[in-house]
């Protein structure tokens, strides 16, 4: 199968399906390291939750907000 044919097939997939396929193609997932700031952000969020300062919203509301802000 040529690269052009592969691209055509990939274009038929949803973004979610393409991302799932990409992640499945990573052979050594243990070698994929998160950047340092990910750990820092997780610790900051844990502190907000523990302090009762975190605000939670339903996923559908958060998703709509993300779409609104990025469209």
Defining key terms:
71 residues, mainly alpha
Structure, explained:
The chain is an all-alpha fold and 71 residues long. The chain has a domain at 35-71. 66% of the residues lie in helices and 0% in strands. The chain contains 4 helices and no strands. The chain is flat and about 55 Å long. It starts with a helix and ends with a helix. 0% of the residues are buried.
Question: Summary?
Answer:
Helix content is 66%, strand content 0%. It has helices at 3-11, 15-25, 36-50, 59-70. It is flat and about 55 Å long.
Task: Outline the secondary-structure elements.
Elements: H1 3-11, H2 15-25, H3 36-50, H4 59-70
- Beta-strand proportion: under 5%
State the shape.
Answer: flat
Number of helices: 4
Give me the strand/helix succession: HHHH
Rg estimate, integer Å: 18 Å
Beta strand count:
0
Overall pLDDT, averaged? 93
In whole angstroms, how far apart are the ends?
35 Å
Q: Which assembly state applies to the chains in this document?
A: single chain
Helix content: 55-70%
Outline the biggest β-sheet: none
Please mark out the parts with pLDDT under 50 across 5 or more consecutive residues, or reply none.
none
Structural class: mainly alpha
């Amino acid at each position: 199968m040529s690269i052009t044919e592969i691209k055509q097939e990939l274009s038929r997939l949803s973004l979610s399906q393409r991302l799932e396929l990409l992640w499945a193609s990573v052979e050594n997932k243990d070698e994929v390291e998160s950047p340092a700031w990910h750990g820092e952000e997780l610790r900051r969020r844990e502190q907000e939750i523990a302090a009762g300062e975190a605000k939670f919203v339903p996923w559908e509301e958060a998703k709509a907000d993300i779409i609104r802000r990025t469209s």
